[in-house]
């Protein structure tokens, strides 16, 4: 049976991306992205909201483009879920779950705080292509 590992997120950046370079010079950008859902609580009648935070990793050309992002930007990310283990500074093994991006679109606009009279004035600014579209070895 075939399997699929695909994630699609639309959310806001919690901080500017952090840029690093591997030993062989490949750029890597990481950033945290928040997605939120809201619902009306049946018992109180009030609105409830839950926010999930996702760690996103972008490599090579996509990383260089991600470096242009800023805290608060609304971003569309496609990728896959990947977990990895590493040794923390305290010497203990840790496990982290990340979204490895292969497509990213920046959506620029005002926050829709449900107080505006019209729709959110968002537009797609730039489409960041998938690394798969390039002849860059991984």
Notable traits:
disordered C terminus, single chain, 138 residues, OB fold (Dihydrolipoamide Acetyltransferase, E2P), 1 helix, mainly beta, 7 strands, globular, 5-stranded mixed beta barrel
**Terminal-residue CA separation:** 27 Å
The Rg value, from CA coordinates, equals: 17 Å
The number of distinct helices, counting runs of at least 4 residues, comes to 1
Characterize the largest beta sheet: strand count, sense, and whether it forms a barrel: 5 strands, mixed, barrel
Q: What is the CATH architecture annotation?
A: Beta Barrel
Low-confidence stretches: 112-125, 130-138
- Helix fraction? under 10%
Strand arrangement within the widest β-sheet reads: 1-3-4-6-5
Overall mean confidence score, pLDDT: 83
Q: CATH superfamily membership, which one?
A: Nucleic acid-binding proteins
Quick structural overview:
The protein is mainly β and 138 residues long.
Would you kindly provide a written description of the structure presented here, covering whatever features stand out?
The chain is 5% helix and 54% strand. With 138 residues, it is mostly beta strands. It has one domain: Nucleic acid-binding proteins (OB fold (Dihydrolipoamide Acetyltransferase, E2P)). The model is unreliable at 112-125 and 130-138 (pLDDT under 50).
């Amino acid at each position: 049976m075939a399997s699929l590992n695909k994630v699609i997120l639309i959310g806001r950046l919690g901080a500017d991306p952090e840029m690093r370079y591997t030993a062989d010079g490949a750029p890597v950008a990481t950033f945290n992205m928040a997605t939120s859902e809201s619902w009306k609580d049946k018992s109180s009648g009030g609105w409830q909201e839950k926010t999930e935070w996702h760690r996103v990793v972008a490599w090579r050309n996509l990383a260089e483009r991600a470096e242009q992002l800023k805290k608060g930007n609304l971003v569309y990310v496609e990728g896959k879920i990947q977990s990895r283990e590493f040794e923390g500074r305290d010497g203990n093994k840790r496990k982290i779950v990340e979204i490895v991006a292969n497509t990213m679109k920046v959506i620029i606009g005002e926050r829709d705080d449900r107080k505006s009279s019209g729709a959110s004035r968002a537009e797609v600014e730039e489409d960041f292509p998938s690394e798969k579209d390039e002849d860059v070895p991984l």
